[in-house]
Every structure is written in structure tokens, then in C-alpha cells.
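Deliverable D5.2: sample structural annotation.
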Amino acid sequence: MSIFEGILTGFQVALSLKGLSFVFIGVVTGTIIGMIPGLGPITAIAVMIPITYGMDPALALLLMAGVYYGSAYGGAASSILLNAPGESMAVPTTFDGYPLAKQGKAGKALAIAALASFTGGTISVILLTLFAPFLAKVAISFGPAEYFALMLMGLMTVASFSSGSTIKALISATVGFIIATIGIDSQTGTARFTFGNINLMEGIDFLVIALGLFALAEVTSLIRERKERSMFDSEFGSMKLSKAEVKELSVPVTRQSLLGFIIGVLPGAGGTIASFLGYITEKKLSKKPEEFGKGSIVGLAAPESANNSASSGAFVPLLSLGIPGSGTTAVMLGALIVLGVQPGPLMISDHPDIFWGVIASMYIGNVILLILNLPLIPYISKLLKVPKPMLISLVIMFCIIGVYGISFRTFDLFLLVIFGIIGYFMARMNFPAAPMLLAFILGGMMERSLRQALTISDGSLLIFVQKPISATLLAIAFLSFIVPLLKTWRKRKSDGDAEETDSQAS
């Protein structure tokens, strides 16, 4: 079956009454769930497994796919308006989305997020249609050494997050990496940094750290400085983008849509790495990097387009290889097996209605998301009209519900408060929180890839430089680490020379 015949078959499934209904229900449900911290797409899809049991597998996957990419947009709303990312891939959205909201540009920020998500999702689906069979072969060439190099590159570029001290950013990343090791080692069964506490045996959940470092820390600052500033100094603002802003966004959004798709295709990488790398890359390439973290529209659009593009790209390894590209697609893999469908190389020929039906539904789902979300932005932004004490209470309530809903343990609530205090003092002392969270997210995957690579090479480190892809990624990681330090050294040297010249002149 050619690509053209395949996509026609897919649209026959997706444009049927049942297909349209399930796509609509999926994207609406996903958008709502994405806005609520703690109720991520993994939970939603896991809950839907028993609901979809007995359904046509194609329609069931249409519903779950809609929830998946719908939640990728929904996460932007809580990140922008409340500084409370519900999913790890929504964290970079807070860096510039929340400052924009505080500047009275919440409407513009939500509109940019919607348009960037639509662009990223659409470009990704077009690439998925054209290159899915070929990319499946490329993705399988990524082994543990390449994954380790990719993640090390991500960690080394944490210096880009810091507008101040590179050393502080690296300290923050190191602490995040240490936190990632807490719990029982899955390979040796050894308890690490648990101090005999049974509650730490399973490690610390991402949401506890994310909500503590970002949402709770921000709320603490607001309460402490309640007489100095309000949560939002101005109104909702206009949703319109000027021609100059559209021109400024067009290249970064297109670039991150392509990068996000490539990252999403890699099994195990997912939207989180795509959104962080998207933010880092655009900051490096920007002519105005000093604006990042203070309300840059490029800093908001880049991770949004990247994570939505990666969400679609993650379906390549899932459908073509039977390998999940993210945690959410791992749950989908289980759901498909429950429904009697085995994803893999034979899926295109054995189940063309499912393979092409999901791809066709993404075109429709992205259009529905844009049509739904743009008119709803003024209503979503009503959150800004809520009185500050009530809004602070709502944020705290969402944090508590989100964290308690993970494991129903009060111990996690104590951890939430501890990370809130840590986040508050980090902000006051200009320690960036993002590197800590990124290191925590990548730490477990990085350790696992390192072990697998060393097992394959019988302990030889040469495996990381013998393969061209891993060698290239390691070279980029080294440059990302050394270049900021050289820049700092040259700046200090030039400042010192200038002071010496001034003193001689006087």
C-alpha cells in the first residue's frame, strides 16, 4: 500500500461519525486533564484502558491519541497562568509563559502557545505521514551509548539556563542528579540515600519536585511579598500578534517542530527532552538571549512547538517497532496489546486502518484543538480575575491534590513543602531551579543507558567514541560545557584589563 492509499484509508476511519466523535472527546478530555497538575496523560490513558476494552482497536487508539496530544496543549495553560506545570514536558513553558502573564500578556502567551502547538503538531504529522517507515529504521540504530551521549549533552547545556553563574547552574544540576538516585537500585536492589525510610524506597516522584520548586516556591514568594506586588500586575491583554512578532516566531517554531519530531522518534526520548532542548537551542541561537526567562515569546513558542511535535513523533517507534517513545505511549502499547493488536514492523500491512487512522486523526485533532482553544482563551484566562488570596489557595490545593493523588501518602506532602522551601531559597539566592529538575528527569535514564553501554562493551569506555553519533553528541556536550566557561574567563580578563588601563590613566 502506497502512502497516498494509506492516508486515504486513514481518513476513512478518522472522518467517520464514530472516528470524529472519539477524536473530539479525546482532545477535549486531554486538554482539561493537561490543565490539572497531577492528572497527566499517563493517568488518563491508564484509566481509559478498561473503558476502551472491547472497542474497535482503531477507534480506541484514536481516543487515546487525542488525549495524548490534547494534554500537551492543556499543560501550557496551567504553566502560563499558575506557574504550575502538570507534566515534565510543560516545565520549559513556565520559564517565559508565566513572566508574560505577570506582565499582562496572558492572552498573547496563550495564543502563542496554541499556535505553536498547532504548528508543531501539524508539521510533525506531515513528517510522520511521509517518513514513518524510513525513520523507524533510523530510530532503531540508537543504542545505549547514543542515548547516554544525548542525555549528557542535555545536562551539559544546563549552563544555558542560567543567566547568572554557570557554577550555580551546575551545582543545581548535580543536586538534581543526586535526588534522581534516591530509592532502590533497579539493577542491584541496593537502597540508595533512603536513610532507612521506607517511603523513599521507590524514589521521589517528578511532580513532587516540579510543583515544589516552581508552584509552591512562587506562592511562598507571593505571600511573603504580598504588600510589594500583586500576582498579576495587569489585565488579560490582547491576543493579537503583530507582523514583527509572527516573523520573529516563524523560524524558531519551524525549527523546533523539526527538532521535536526527530527527538520524539527516538525511543525513550519523548516530549520532555524535546521541550528542554528546544528552549536551550533557541536561547543559544537567539540574538536577544538576555530576554529568555523574562517573558520572551520565542522562549515560550520553542518548547511548545517541540513537545507537541515530539508527541506525534513518538508514534513512529510505537507503531512501527512496538517500542514506546515515552511513558504515555508505553501505556498505549499495553492498551493495544489488551485490545489484541501487536504494534511492530508488520502493523502497516496487517492493520493499515489503525496505523493510518491514527495519523489521519492527528490532522483532524490538531484543527479541533486550534478551533476549540483560541476562542476559549478569554475564558481560561478568567483565572487572572480570581482574587489573589483565592488564587493562591487554588494553586496550593492543586499542588496538594496532584501530589497526594500519585501515591496517597502524606509523606509526599511533606516532601512537597520541603522542595517548596528549597525552591524559594534557590530563587532568592539566584540558583536556577530548571537544571535541577532536568537533571532529575534525565538522571535515571542516563544511568540506565550508561550501565547498558558498559555491559555491551564489557566495561570499555571506548564504546562512546567509536560510534559516530555518540562521538558527535559527546563533542557537542563538551563544547556546551567549555564555551560558557571560556566566555566568562574572557569577560573577566577584558574587565580586568580595562580596570588596569583606567588605573594607569588616573
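Annotation notes: The chain has one domain: 3-226+243-500. The longest strand covers residues 183-184.
The annotation will be released with the project's public dataset once the embargo ends.
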